[in-house]
Each structure stands twice: as C-alpha cells, then as structure tokens.
Amino acid sequence: MTELAEKNSSDVNIPGPDLTAGLQNETKKHSDSTRVVHPSGRTGHGRAIQILRIAAFAVYFSFCCFIIGITQFIGSPLYFVNRDWYYAYMSMTKRSFALTVTLMTHLFGPTTMRISGDESVAGQIFPTSGGGVEFKFPERMVMIANHQIYTDWIYLWWIGYANRPGMHGHVYIILKESLKYIPIMGTGMMFYGFIFMSRKMATDQPRLAHRLNKLKQKKVDPWGNTYLDPMWLLLFPEGTNLSNNGRRKSSQWAAKNGLQDPEHVMLPRSTGTYFCLNELKDSVEYVYDCTVAYEGVPRGKYGEEIFGLASTYFEGRPPKSVNLYWRRFRVADIPLDDPKTFDLWLRDQWYKKDALMEEYLSKGHFPPLPGAEVNYVETEVRTRYPWEILQIFSVVGICVLLWHNMRRLLQATSAKFGFLV
C-alpha cells in the first residue's frame, strides 16, 4: 500500500504500488515545461502529436484491458470446476497484461535498461545474442525494492517476463483496497490474486495471512509428487514512492526515533515485510532486493516530478535509462525470530541502498557485475517478438470463431429441416 509510511510501527505496514496514482496531478507538472530544463531534453512532440499519442495510448491500453477482462470472465467458471485449472488460466491472463504494458512502454516510452548486481546474483543476469537480457531468478521469491516513481512496478514486472522460465504470470502485488473498485482493471486485479489491504490492523492481518497461505499451499501432481506454484511477491517497504512529502515524513520519523536519515531513500517500515516473510519462510528460499535509479533525476529532486505519465508516454521524454542493481539474501540468514532485530536488519539494508544511490549519483552508474563478461547488461523494455501481443486475443478469438461456426451450423440445420432457430 502506498501511504503506509505515515503509520506508526505497530501498524501492519504492507507496502505496494499505487497503479493509478500516476494518472493524477499530471496537468500542473508540465504546464511550464518550456521553462524547465528536462533531463531527457525538449518535448519530443508538438501539441497535436501529443493529443494523437494520448488518443492512441488510451485506445490501445483500454482495448487490451477490455479483451483481457472478457478473457477472465470466460474462464471464471473454472473456479467451480477445478481450482488448479482456474489459477493456471488466470496466470495466463496475467501474462497478457504484462505483455500489454511491456509493448506499451516499448512503443510510447522507450528507455534503456541498465542492469547489474553484486556477487550474490552472479551468473543469474546475462545478455542474449539479440540485445536482450535473461534472468535465472528462482520461481519462488519475495522481491523488495525502493520506490522511486509510480511506474517502478512496470519495470519490475518486466523482469519477470525476461526471466527464464517466464514469471510474468506469477507476480503478486499488495495494493490499497480502493484500487479494486476501478472499472475493469480493479476486477482484473482481483482475478490476478493481488492482495488488497484496508490499512486497518484488525482487518488486514487475518486477510493477509489467508492470502499468503494460499500462495504457500502444496500441490500434488498426477504422480504423487508435491510442489509449490511459482510466486514472485513484490513489496515496497518504504510504503510509498519517493516525494517531497514522503521525504519530509521519513525525516520526521528518523528524528523522532533518533535514527540516521538516509538522503536518497526513505526509511523502510518493517512490520508488513516481517509478517510476509514469516508467513512464507518455509516456502521461499530467497529475498531479492532491487535498487532502482532513474537517469536524469538531479540530487535532491524526485523522479515523480520529472517522469510522470505525460512526460514518459505522451511528450516523448521518458527516462534515458532505468538502472537496476540486484542483491540476494537467503531467508534462513534473515533474522525473523524477533521484529526488532529484523527492523534493524532491514534498515541496515536501506542504508546500504542509500550508499548505492550515492554511488550512482556520483559516478552515473551502479557497481558492475562481478566476474561477468560485461559490466552491465543494457537492453530495453520490449517483447521478444513483435507479434507476441496477439496472444492476448487468442481466447476471445477462439470463442468468436466457435460462436460463428455454431450459428452457421444451426442455420444450416434449420434450413434443412425447415424450422426456425
């Protein structure tokens, strides 16, 4: 949930992105863009082209979401037939949404992805011959990251797409409850199995425990072997994206509790992360931490002020590069027996993350990959094949074709036997 940094440490702080926040407050951010030096240069498109891009963006995204929603509705009866089939089907629709936002970013907001990590992820990130990237991250993990701007979740979800095997159908995000009431998208996120929280401890903790229990249930294959479904659970321990308001509240929290205040990130709140890891510790071996930095954000400024939806997708001024630095922690090595000890551990990781951000701002890049052929893997957010987006229309297309053929068969039958259908 995006604003839980405002809560005290006794609350169930369950972090997550606001998938729609970037749709708000865009009008005033760029009203004086001609007077502000933007790190991605002057506006790449005139007003008329921007209007056309907005229209094309709206048509593309809305139509794809509508088709995915129809696909989910078609498969929803599987819930009452076979739960494993149902969840596998909804995972397929989740992959469709990942393809939608990946192609959307490639077409409307192309950017260079620059990826590295420390020795804990050595051999798990490598370039492909076609200029892409592949990851060998596990099928089950908890992913934590600093929260820079509203679109962080798009780039992190794309990591699941680039992973082998593809994990973009098994990403789970924790969101504030109001988002489930968004037409079409809210229903779609419920079908995806995303976890909605109300920020009330008495309500949220049992609900969260119930949802996490579903994610760690063991299944049995036809040969009697037990297994766990793939799962990437995405958490933002800061609770909200970095902003002037969030930075101020983080500083106040640090002063109130006598803590060092990091300069480039906000202090994480550990309650929700601690709860999730304790619930999943017997079914997840690793936590993967990602430090996210956007090229062009000056020291002391905030990415949300520069790379909003208008700049990134409509004006032709996306970030020149999105930089990701990965670290991995074994869950068995994380202190999960005591919440205070865990709070110290998580805060220490955020101080290290703050040092990484300082290095990025000073040198223009994160530390290189150790022992790899390349220091950084550079690629772009894109699908592997241009026609891959057509997958999202497959179920609806098949249903339309079946309906068409059934109508023709019924019409032919009625003509032959002389009755009206």
TrEMBL record:
This is Phospholipid/glycerol acyltransferase domain-containing protein. SMART domains: PlsC (SM00563). CDD domains: LPLAT_LCLAT1-like. Keywords: Acyltransferase, Membrane, Transferase, Transmembrane, Transmembrane helix. It comes from Conoideocrella luteorostrata. The keyword Ion transport does not apply. The keyword Transmembrane applies. InterPro entries: Acyltransf_C, Plipid/glycerol_acylTrfase. Belongs to the 1-acyl-sn-glycerol-3-phosphate acyltransferase family.
